Amino acid sequence: MNVAVRSHATTKQVSEHFDVLIVGAGISGIGSAYHIEKQLPGTSYVILETQATFGGTWSTHRYPGIRSDSDLHTFGYSFKPWVGPPIATAEEILAYMNEVIDDNDIARHIRYKHRINSASWSSEQNLWTIEATTTDTGEAKTFTANFLWMCQGYYRHSEGYTPEWKGMDRFKGRIVHPQSWPDDIDLANKKVVVIGSGATAATLVPNIADACAHVTMLQRSPTYFRLGRNAIEIAEELRRLQVDEEWIHEIVRRKILFEQDAFTKLCIAKPEQVKKDLIDQIRAVLGPDYDVETHFTPTYRPWRQRIAFVPDADLFKGIASGKASVVTDEIECFVENGIQLKSGKLLEADIVVTATGFNLAALGDIAFEIDGKPLAFGDTVTYRGMMFTGVPNMVWVFGYFRASWTLRVDLVADFVCRLLGHMKAKGTKKVEVRLRPEDHNMPILPWIDPENFNPGYIMRNMDLLPKRGDKPEWQHSQDYWTEKDEIPKTDLDDGAFVYG
């Protein structure tokens, strides 16, 4: 039960206290709340969410055709069976999340339209103080919490990343970013250029191809895609046999995870074979005369960037039909009626969509302080991508790139619930991680190895992210198949954990 206490702020506003404060009501925040409900009954908690509703990405992104690029059998929660097609629309994902909220009485714990401005830790009180503002009224709100659970994701929801190109101000058409898709945009009879080659571009292009005169995907360099039916045969068969959905969910999750592990290992062991197999799938749809070498043959090995799944080959069917096309080139500048390319070609456009990625916001654009000193997140070292040296009573949920994000939500939630239970049993109010004596000569490296994984939004902002060591416990391995065994076995009395 939350207890109202007086704030020491000069405004004397009332602050509310909770055992746990969760930042964000997206896929991570709702999943974490479920685990508190089930594993730590009686724990008081609140979820603060900037938006007017739950869902995070799936509510803020409204561009045509928005869908998952991970299968929902693994992107869905371990505790809630997914019964629809593996690649799901935002609407289907939100309906699924809404059922989790309703079934577990989570709604009463969520405070919408609460933007967090600052979070300050006091070692004297062993408390976090969170200052927030309500986005509709501008009212200042203060909360205190024993433990902070960061579930806000990793990018800025308010704006996407759009590079600055010469001449953008000269362009007479409209420039939009998928992350802030306007309600009033009219695509009819328009020439549309979508800049980008990732999952967003691959989703947008086939979904607007019928609505506009023509759509062109303009990419600087090719990327990898996987093609397949938007269905899982074993799930269909088990449903025909009337097997319980919980059994189907678990069986299909295990099958997919086994296959993903095998595929990831194959990408490392036999990258050229994987590359050929992926490109041959595309060639089979586009035909022998299409220039697959130029437009769909990446120069890097598979899995150095995320591989988007294209259900039912819809992107490539749109290209084959002539309603969509791909141009691989670089932008020289914008001109009044389109984009001048470095090759000399003019790409005419009425509308340009910049599917060019995210702006990283590692800590949700919240001003953090530890005992009055601003937190320089980039100076900390991560413990398994969850905790950070010198930052007490806080865990951050950062999911997987090579597997579904939500797999790590469940893993981290189990860890946090076990940690909070361990602290209660020890009678301690504070926990933080510190490098042990045997770690002090350990090489300190960037958050992630660019040779292993190098998406643009990470590379542009690596300095904002914590450092890693060269030992498994001091890095975010991105390897679910190892972490699913290692994290549950974490020794909470290891010297890396300091209690107080």
From TrEMBL:
Top-level division of the source organism's lineage: Bacteria
Listed cofactors: FAD
Annotated keywords: FAD, Flavoprotein, Monooxygenase, Oxidoreductase
Coiled coil location: none
One Pfam family matching this protein: NAD_binding_8
Signal peptide extent: none
Similarity comment: Belongs to the FAD-binding monooxygenase family.
UniProt-recorded name of the protein: Cation diffusion facilitator CzcD-associated flavoprotein CzcO
